[in-house]
Amino acid sequence: MSLRIDLNADLGEHPNSNLDEQIMPYISSCNIACGGHIGDESSVRQTILLARKSGVSVGAHPSYPDRENFGRKIMQMQPQQLADSISEQIELVRRVCAEEDVILHHVKPHGALYNHAASDGFISELVLNVLKEVANGVYWMGLADSQSARVAHNKNYPFIAEGFADRQYEPDGSLRSRAMEGAVLKNKAVIGQVEQLVINHRVHTDNWLKLDIQSICLHGDTEGAVTLAKEINDHLVSKGVQIAAV
């Protein structure tokens, strides 16, 4: 049985740049910033059109509404206030997708919201409730072997288990904080981690940690992202892995 993996990237985050267009040929799905940490209707539409042209599946990438910190800090918000913000962001992508005859394939929270949901059952339940309300049945993409995954599975909601090409893992399977040294991997370390995740279903922390994933993320703001995207794609294909959305 041949191996298959989705290769995704967070896009719509780079105004006045052609980075998204350069990365598109090497990925199979994208997560589009939709106004929480960055982005607006114009950038959402532009990225959706690029994805449609390239045959790349489209996802919404909502975050805490915190442009100042690029959505990378947990905000203290009332649950309904947070739910309304996430809903508004997803709805923007869903509406533009409909206008451009594109299917909204998945929703992947961004930054602090992603990590908060991964570790906190209450936040995961909140995200799931929003999904059911505004985009029921659309895949939820989140950290493999996390609270997000468990909440989705317990509710029989379609979930894409994600791993990371360029982030260091902690022994409990969480991602190392970007504030810590070595949190973001570079160059050959990225290729090595991708191969272990996709081929051997494991990631190295203090020891080897078993991790089954369906999608692997390369951050668009990682140094040399375009070159890395091409190298990851080429390496996986050379190993007989099919790059395709879930």
Key features?
246 residues, alpha/beta, TIM Barrel, seven-stranded parallel β-barrel, two-stranded antiparallel sheet, 8 helices, 39% helix
CATH class: Alpha Beta
Overall radius of gyration = 17 Å
Encode the helix/strand succession as letters.
Answer: EHEHEHEHHEHEHEEEHE
Give a quick account of the main beta sheet: strands, pairing sense, barrel closure.
7 strands, parallel, barrel
Q: What is the number of domains?
A: 1
How much of the residues is beta strand, in percent?
15-25%
Strand order of the largest sheet: 1-2-3-4-5-6-9
Helicity, as a percent range: 25-40%
Calculate the terminal CA-CA distance, rounded to whole Å.
Answer: 16 Å
Under CATH, the topology can be stated as: TIM Barrel
- Assign the CATH architecture: Alpha-Beta Barrel
Explain the overall architecture:
The chain is of the alpha/beta class and 246 residues long. It has a single domain (4-243), classed as Alpha-Beta Barrel (TIM Barrel). The chain is built from 8 helices and 10 strands. The protein has a 7-stranded parallel β-barrel, surrounded by 6 helices. Helix 1 (19-23) links the parallel strand 1 (4-11) and strand 2 (29-33). The longest helix is centred in the middle third of the chain and has 21 residues, at 79-99. The radius of gyration is 17 Å and the shape is globular. The two termini are 16 Å apart. The mean pLDDT is 95.
